[in-house]
UniProtKB/TrEMBL annotation:
Residues 334-390, 432-471, 484-537 are annotated as: Disordered. GO terms for cellular component: nucleus; preribosome, small subunit precursor. This is Ribosomal RNA processing protein 1 homolog. Residues 337-347, 526-537 have a biased composition (Basic residues).
Amino acid sequence: MAGSGAGEGPTLIKQLAACDKSSRDRAVRSLLDGWLPSQSEVSDEEMKRLWKGLFYCVWHADKLPAQTDLINKLSSVLPKLEPGLSLQYFSVFLLTMRREWTGIDKLRLDKFYLLIRRFLNCFFVMLKKSSWDLDFMRRSIRVLVDGTFIADDKFQGNGVNYHIASIFLEEIRPFFPLRKEVVEVLLEPFVGILGKVGDKVLVGKIRSNVFDVLVKTGRRLLELKQSGDEVDESDDVVVFGTIGLVMGFSTKFYELGSSVDCCQGNRKAVLALHEEFLKLEKDLTSLGIDISIPEGNEGNEEDDVPELIPVGGETDANVSNDVLEPVEVNITGSAKKATKKSKKAKKATGDNGKKTKKSKKTECSPADQENEVKLPAEVASSNIEQNGDGDSITFTESVISNLQLQFEKVAAEVGLNSDVATACDLPKVNGAVSKKRKRAKGANGRKPQNGELTGEADGEGDGTAKTCENSTKRVRFSMKSNLVWKPHSPLPPLSLRLPPSVTPRGSALKQGIPPGPIKEMAPMTKKGKKAKSVKKARKVIKSMYPLVKRTKKLKSTSS
């Protein structure tokens, strides 16, 4: 290699493809941190040999953390190199991937997909570092297109082309918004590719993952604009939909589809895209909506320093003044909000989470209520306690009671039910409102049932309620007392003498006896198996030679 000692280049490449991980790590470190950034020019043959070693370095990487770390190191060096060297580094990477693609097995395919995705992302980072210079962008996009989609080599690396077409919009998305000229340079090559390549799969990938996305998001953006819904400017629908509506793809596809140079097999797909974009642009014109591509911030984001908001006396003064503003009492939910705030304030003022003793509250009387009713502003100013810093606010019990009185006053004016019990009428246990419910005799004179609390149980004795354990209903079932003998309905003729039918009633139904007449049936008896006959059928043996057997018998008898 240029700038290295004799024999150092081949040794470095062998170390990149070594089986030992430590040797590979040392080789990658010396290459990316020392040798490659210091070079201003490298020959194509040296770069190809270098990428041969890097390819097998990724090949030998096992486990996801090690693979991700190595891939990030290889791709992140792309924006750090000189512009010419970075384009050469990227082009030889594409060439190596296409050459070696057919030898990648399915177990290693995912990490090489990740390698292509990271390199494409760093490719856009390199364009951003050049401030999206149009001339440099055209050179870079030409390297990408010539090295993949319309490559004139004989390598069967179509999988690289398919993957780049599938992830192109996903990887360029974080860099939006961009100028209209920049977007045109980025997407215009895909229009020309549809008219040149004969690969139907590649045409389908470009159409579904690039132009169909622009059509769908553009149609969705028109629907949102027509309905008046607010959409975030950074949403994909706004970013990609604006590009599909404004870039004028219908004219470009029409010119491509009607030209002589267009591939005959792709002409139908190109004209179909022309129809879709033309309909989209007509809908935009008919609605009269003004949509334009925003001018993006294409400089370095590190230069933008956010303004710091000072925290000082003015903000504290505003907080203190806002605290003393009148508190409006609303029936629907302001009283609930006030009680929630008071609970939070009580928890905050407690010492290490311990509950403080509650002060005894005097009984509420109408005269006291009239005296305690105050205006909301006076209540807030007289009862809100602030610390020295003015950060925390403490609501006392008088504030809560005054809010309750205000609520009852407004409820009385509106005409709510006067029978609703107030906080003053509820029974208290140790100074707190009791959660037990009283059940007195109703208007119909019904007494509480077993297990219900009565006023005497709450007011007298130990105040404990009777349990329902001893009041459970015990049912004793007997078939005789739950069977009713009824005559047939309708009655049979007098000439017939039939017994009455038995119908279950009451608890007899719980035993699984269906309602209706009960028919007594004779018990089923199992039929015994028939005994096999002792006598067996005689087997008739037909002999082919009866005369011979007979002579043998005669000889045996005679002897």
